[in-house]
Amino acid sequence: MRKKTFHLLTLSLMGLLPMQASTIFLADVDTSSVAGTIGFLDFTFDPGPLITQSAFASISSFSSDGTLGTPVISGDVTGSLTSSITLNNDTAFNDYFIPFTFGDTLNFLVTLGGPALDSSDSTSTSGSTFSFSMFAGDGSTPLLTSDSTDGFAFLLNVNLDGTTRLSNSSGQTSVSAVGASVPEPTGALLLAAGLIALRALGGSAISASWRAR
Amino acid sequence: MRRIWFVLIFLCSTSWMSAQSTATPELGLDVNAQTDAVVANGWPLLIRAAVISANGQPLQIGVNNGFWTQALRLTVTGASGAQSWPVQLLPPSAATLSLSGIHNAEAVWVVDPSDTTAIPAGLYTLSVTLDTTATASSGDWSGAVNGNHATVQFQAEPASLSSGQTASKYLAFAAYGRLHGDSQGAGTALDTLIGLQPDSLEPYKEKGDLLAAGGNYAGALALYQQAIQKFTAANPNPPEPPTALVMDQLDIAESLANQMMNVNAQVQVTTSGLVYSRVSREFSGTMTVINTGSAAIAGPISVALSNLPAQMTLDNATGTLGLGGSPYIRVLNSGSLGVGQSAAITIRFGDPSMAAITFTPVVYSGL
């Protein structure tokens, strides 16, 4: 675990992750209650139905003692979860759906960025929303969430003014803002990766409920 | 010879014209909307005499110093002879009755539920007469006509009601509530019936009429739409369309159109992103209406989703604007949206194509 986290940290420092002005979140999930379950992880980032400003969501520094399978990708999604994936909001359904054998924990960074966050305009009328969900082996039975209607563990909304808003329905998941990066690789992402490293080393969980910026 | 023909033609024409201009009223009688009703003690009794112009010609009925309904005589006979029930004749909306081919009227007698408990079980015959022979106002119709007979079988309420009895009971209570201005009681009776008989059209129509009478045309329209959808589901290839339902629905839609006001210029509509759920198989998000104008906007406030592609559905729509019209969703039920205030609602879409969901929001006050 320590070696993997260190590897992800190195990737971050090498600049392989988006380095635009953006907001970064650390998601930390206690999956011990479903350890050994063969299921799925699902990441989406979708625009609204009106006028939506361009944005992306990037997943990086994924770390877990579970096992990843081969993903099914829909829409404008690039990359691999073993390094990083980027979901752009320029199609209706941008989805990274990957088989996963749950271990005791998983954590990752979510970076929201792009013009909608860097320089929000005054003409857009729809935001964008990132979702993270966990499913059982049938791909549709939600795990580790109280959201029985839609099965989302948590949502991150990109608001029209460039702020973000978290809705967390998972008691096993903590989501925290770990900072906002600026165009140059700076301490924010380093801090985020460092937090993951600390978590992997047994650091404490981070508060789950907050409002960013 | 030619002169005789002229005379004969003239007389026939005069006779024909006279027959056409002699308008007489015609009466129809029912009890709890049936001509042969079965009523349990403790249910309300509504006795209705419908009055029409027999040939559709204009006809005015009025009596000296009173309402036209004073010319009506209701008689009830049972096995023991003439009955004296505690009927209350409801006051008509006007003292004089003006009938034509399109204007009809009715008089209603009510026996309260508490009074029907005392009516002995048995079969009763009701009849009605309209007689203005001695009381007609000058120039108004003078004469006497009898209506049809109606029967009512009184009995103790069965421990278990049949489907027809259940409908009769709750429709009677609903009508009784409406006639006494008790909209809540009427609505409760109809909601109960809808719960017991969800596939029956009549309670939806009656509830729609109740809401429309209270000015809630949007709610009324939604109920009529449900009734028509149920009719269509039960009759995929009907020999004829539900004309009466559709006509009433159009009337309500027209009233709604007159009531609601486009307030797009006073608001901004925004949404969150729409995320797809593998559980619900829907895209969902939040829609927010912000009052950007200079005055409060009266509720109810709804947003119609114009130009929503046909293959997409607003799954939690409040209703649609007419048959096949745009779906709309209520964002504020009552009160008003003050300047700078916002109202938000969850929107959920079915989109099997997974294509981009697009629409043009149109915001209405009064919908």
Walkthrough of the structure:
The complex is a heterodimer of chains A (213) and B (367). By secondary structure, chain A is mainly beta. Chain A has one domain. Helix content of chain A is 14%, strand content 41%. Chain A is built from three helices and 13 strands, in the order αβββββββββαββββα. In chain A, the strands form two sheets. In chain A, strands 2, 4, 5, 8, 10, 11 and 12 form a seven-stranded antiparallel beta sheet that branches. A six-stranded antiparallel beta sheet of chain A has the order 6-7-3-9-1-13. In chain A, helix 1 runs antiparallel to helix 3 (187-200). With 367 residues, chain B is α+β, with helices and mostly antiparallel strands. Chain B has three domains: 23-157, Sandwich (Immunoglobulin-like), CATH 2.60.40; 158-259, Tetratricopeptide repeat domain (Serine Threonine Protein Phosphatase 5, Tetratricopeptide repeat, Alpha Horseshoe); 262-365, Immunoglobulin-like, CATH 2.60.40. In chain B, 28% of the residues lie in helices and 32% in strands. Chain B has helices at residues 2-21, 113-116, 163-179, 183-196, 202-213, 217-234, 243-259, and strands at residues 25-31, 36-40, 45-53, 59-61, 72-78, 81-82, 88-89, 97-99, 105-111, 122-131, 144-146, 150-155, 261-262, 267-271, 275-276, 283-291, 297-298, 301-306, 313-314, 319-320, 327-332, 336-337, 342-350, 360-365. In chain B, a hairpin with a 2-residue loop joins strand 5 and strand 6. In chain B, helix 3 runs antiparallel to helix 4 (183-196) and helix 6 (217-234) runs antiparallel to helix 7 (243-259). Chain A binds chain B through residues 42, 44-50, 52, 74, 89, 91-93, 95, 97, 125-131, 133, 135, 139-142, 148-152, 155, 157-160, and chain B through 268-280, 282-285, 351, 354-359, 361.
